[in-house]
Each structure stands twice: as C-alpha cells, then as structure tokens.
Specification:
The protein is of the alpha/beta class and about 475 residues long. The chain has 15 helices and 15 strands.
Length: about 475
C-alpha cells in the first residue's frame, strides 16, 4: 500500500487536469503538487521548471540573499531547472561599470559591501549557471551596456539546443560590440533597439548567414541596418517579420520571394524618406506577392500619415489576402471641422468590403487617427479629450450599418472596446435612414451593424443618442 500512487486512484486524464489547474494558480501552488507522490511529481516537475529566470534584483525582503545558492545549484547541475528548463529569462544584472554621477545610487540599488559580495557571486557563478542549462531552446535577454553582456552572450552561444534568441538592448552607454559570432542555426531572432555600429552590423549579417532555417525575424533598429541585404543574399525566406521602420531594402527583400505569414510594422522614433512610396509599395506590391500565405498584418503605431489606409490599399492589396485571420488598419476619423488631409472611407463600405472579401478573418482592429490636439492645460483635460474622441468613434461604429453576402465571422476591436456583428431588422434599417448614407455601406445582402460585446456599460449608447465630437482648431498650431 505504501507504494501506491495517485494514478492508482485517479485516471491520468483527470490528474493532468489537476496539473493544468495548478499552473493557473502560480509557481508556488504548482510546485506544491510535487509533494503528493512520486508519480505526480514526475508530471509536475517538467511544467514547474520549464522557465528559469536569472535576475539580480535587490528587494527589501531580503530574497536576494538566496541568489548565490540558486546560481550554485544551477552551476553544479543539482537544480531541476537544468533538466527541464526550455526558456531562459535574463535581466537585471549587476553593473560592472559604475557611473561617476553622484546620483548613481538611484539607478544601482547595490551599494557598499552588498554590491561587492553580489558582484563576486555574479562573476563566479553567472556564466557556469547559464552554460548548465543545456535543454534551453529560447532566451529572452535584456542587455545593458554597463553589465557583463559580452560574457552572457558568449555563454548563451554555447547552449546546444538554442533556437530562439530575443534581445532588448537597453543602452545607458554605448555598446562597443556584440559577440554574435558563436550563434548559429537559429529559427527565430528578435533584436530590439539594436545598436548600429559597423562591427554589430557585420555580426548580424553573419548571424543570419549561419541560420539557414530562420523563419522569424524581429528587427527594431535605425534605418542604416543592412540585415535585409544579408537576408536576400542568404536565400532565407522569412515567414514572420517584425520591423521598424520599413525601408526600401526590406521592401525589395519581401518582393524577392513569397510565403510571408505574419507582418508587424513596429513603432519607430524616426521614419525614413519616401515613406509615402514605401507604404503604397507595401499595400500594392508586397501584399499581392504574399497574398496566398499571409495570416496577420498589424501596426505598432497609430500616427496619421502614409500608413493611414485608403480604398486603393484595400482593393489592390488587403482584399487579395483571402487567408487573413488578423488585420489592423489605421483609420482616418477626422474631427467635425477638420480640413481633410486623407480620403475618408465610410465605415459601412469598409465593413462590407472586409466581410465579403476576407472570409477567414477572425479579428479586425481599427486604430482611429486624426490631427490630434497636443496642447492641454492639464492631464485631466488631455484624458477628457481623448476619451471624448473614443466615445465618438464608438458611437460612429455602432451607427454604421452595412450589407454583407454572409454574416461577418470576425470580431471588431476599436477604441478599447470589442464589438460583434448583429443582423439589422427592416424596422431598424428604416429608422437609420436619416443617418449619413455614406456610412450605410453599399451592395446587396443582409444588413448588419456592430454592437458592443458583453455587458452594457457607460459607453453603451442608444443608436439615436449623439456623442459630441471634439472640434479641431483652424490652424496647425497645437496639433500633431
């Protein structure tokens, strides 16, 4: 009887449900299940130790005092993380280059004897601890230039199963170089805020050349990065691309093959020349090139400008991508007296076109944009301004009826709200005839509208209730 396990009492599928529920309650509760019996421990341990985090965080509770023992258990191979960890997260290392600023203690919580002790621990145990994690396949590293990032990169390059490398370069001072030379055979690379030096650019190009099975590249760097040329020369055909900003060499690369699956244009502090031309090339040339495979198009910014969608972008690009499942569009929603700088697409026409042309779409996200005011007397006034615009857009969405050949299967995310489509009765359709006909859509078929999903809240409005939008000033001053 002493050797019986929980599997003698409950079937395996029930025990797996218990483990799955334990995962939703946090690491401590999940690890507690290991104490039930040996059989349950064998099921729980791979889940409980699948992700390992190495951080030198100074906390008031004194938990940082356990860091040396934790690193020692990793370096010696005793820790369960050595057997089971598939993902490694690294951040918050102790800086080895101390700034001369008298305010440095605000940025570095490690001071005095504590700092010297933990710095010695980091120097002795960090690299062996990383190298012990031989099962790790994915790494997320926040690299700081005053930390021992070069030692960390060299240790990561020795992990035999590493296929996914994600690095955020958080530079308080300049990165001299990044030792990419040891990495190879990666399937996914994501480099955010990548420093642009000739040595680093050459390192990235070499990294791409040594990763022939690369399927996803996320690159957020200044416009001078030469990675697209390296990709094109290597013959790598990316399935997933996250980039900022989009430059002509990347356009040329995307036009050199077909098979792109997910595209994200991330936010960037600076844009490139000829962005109007680049945006039109993306919609009118890149999307048709990848129309059979692309599943997701998204944008990490909502600025009014060349990326604001036009009807020709839809007709000649977006509507050709019949397998799209997720779509973000930057939609021009001008204020009542704003001088229009872009064509306005009636929402009814937009919803009709998407419903009839994108049969597999699951989620449509509309980011409304306009010439926003930027000068406010206080933060409250700013919040009220944007809240009013959001409410006005919600009202505009709800009042826009449209025709569709089939019931739209996609949900709509707009103004931080989720909408679902509902059929419109003949009576409701007639009552809406007084609204702007341009927002009623065109075409034949059943009439629909989008209603807020879930419970009614303060933003849920009756169809005949008006929300007064914010007027724009006549001049450009005070807007962005």
């Amino acid at each position: 009887m002493a050797n019986r396990s929980i599997l003698d009492v409950l079937p395996l599928d029930i025990v797996e449900l218990v483990v799955r529920e334990g995962k939703t309650h946090g690491p401590k509760e999940l690890c507690g299940l290991r104490l039930v019996c040996k059989a349950l421990n064998e099921l729980v341990e791979p889940e409980a130790f699948s992700t390992v985090s190495i951080r030198f965080i100074h906390d008031d509770l004194g938990k940082w005092k356990a860091i040396p023992e934790f690193l020692s258990s990793l370096a010696s191979g005793r820790s369960p993380y050595v057997r089971w960890a598939r993902e490694l997260r690294l951040n918050g290392l102790i800086g080895i280059h101390v700034t001369e600023s008298p305010w440095s203690h605000y940025y570095d919580p490690w001071q005095g004897e504590e700092r010297e002790t933990m710095l010695a621990c980091q120097k002795e145990l960090l690299v062996p601890a990383i190298e012990s994690l031989v099962q790790v396949e994915a790494v997320n590293f926040v690299a700081n230039s005053w930390e021992p990032y070069q030692d960390v990169f060299s240790a990561l390059a020795k992990l035999p199963r590493l296929r996914d490398l994600s690095v955020i370069f958080h530079a308080y001072s300049a990165f001299e170089s990044v030792p990419f030379a040891g990495f190879s055979n990666l399937n996914r690379i994501c480099l955010t805020s990548l420093p642009m030096t000739p040595h680093i650019i050459d390192g990235v190009k070499g990294l791409l050349a040594r990763s022939p099975s690369l399927t996803e590249l996320g690159l957020n760097a200044s416009p001078q990065v030469e990675a697209p040329e390296a990709l094109q020369d290597s013959g790598i055909h990316l399935r997933d691309l996250k980039v900022a900003p989009l430059r002509p060499p990347i356009i040329d690369y995307l036009l050199s093959y077909s098979g792109l699956r997910d595209f994200t244009l991330d936010w960037s502090q600076q844009d490139v020349e000829d962005v109007e031309k680049i945006a039109r090339q993306f919609f009118h040339a890149v999307l048709p090139r990848h129309q059979d495979t692309i599943r997701s198009i998204s944008f990490g910014h909502t600025n009014l400008g060349p990326w604001t969608v036009t009807q020709s972008d839809l007709d000649d690009g977006v509507y050709l991508c019949k397998n799209l499942q997720k779509l973000t569009l930057i939609y021009y929603f001008p204020s009542p007296n704003e001088k229009h700088t872009h064509p306005v697409i009636p929402l009814g026409n937009l919803f009709s076109g998407i419903s009839d042309n994108l049969p597999r779409l699951e989620t449509l996200r509309l980011e409304h944009t306009r010439k926003f005011q930027r000068s406010f007397g206080c933060g409250f006034a700013c919040g009220q301004y944007f809240n009013t615009i959001g409410r006005a857009f919600v009202s505009h969405v709800r009042k826009s009826q449209f025709s569709a050949k089939r019931k739209p299967q996609f949900s709509l995310d707009a103004a931080a709200r989720t909408f679902i489509s509902k059929p419109v009765s003949a009576a409701s359709s007639s009552s809406a005839s007084g609204s702007d006909p341009a927002d009623s859509g065109s075409g034949s078929g059943q009439r629909y509208r989008f209603a807020l999903s879930g419970a009614i809240d303060d933003v849920e409005l009756q169809l005949d209730e008006d929300v007064y939008d914010c007027d724009a000033y006549s001049g450009d001053e005070g807007f962005y």
